[in-house]
Amino acid sequence: MRLIGMLDSPYVRRVAISLTAMGFGFDHEPLSVFRDFDAFRAINPTVKAPTLVTDDGTILIDSTLILAYLERIAPADRRLSPDDPADFLAAQRVIGLALAACEKTVQIVYETTLRPAEKQYEPWLDRVHAQLHDAYDLLEAAYAGVGDWLVSGRRTQADITAAVAWHFTASRLPDVVPATRYPALGALSGRAEASAEFAAHLQG
Question: Which residues contact residue 103 at a Cβ distance below 8 angstroms, ignoring those fewer than 6 apart?
């Protein structure tokens, strides 16, 4: 399989880490949707990262859909979704919050770095900041008192996505999400980043 996209995208990184955690071999092609637009478009005309090219040449887009496919073909003991319905529900809630936090982070970064200051719309930025903090406040509460992983003794996709999201936001917007406000997420990030799968796919 081929994974197309830069690891500075949390969506690409969560797929790369998950592929490794599930035991899949793959080739990573770090193409930028900005700098390498034409090369990316030659692979996937929608130019959306991440793009996964499967062994039979099928092109999949959207990290959540890619991971759903990988869960279907991974060995049972390497899958990252809990089997227990209650654990699965808790994991899905965390994944949703983490993805919302990623989305809001990207919106803030794009608005403040790509749009001229005089054209930035402050009421909208204030709203996105509030949504970002609400998502991380809920994630912090979910991991408060958790000593290892959300489902005790087993790292799941919830932990991968939450850790990737936090590391991405904390590195891009450290003044917006101060570490002192989110100690549980900082601890989760530290545990995750120390693992071989995370270390193999460092954020760009």
Answer: none
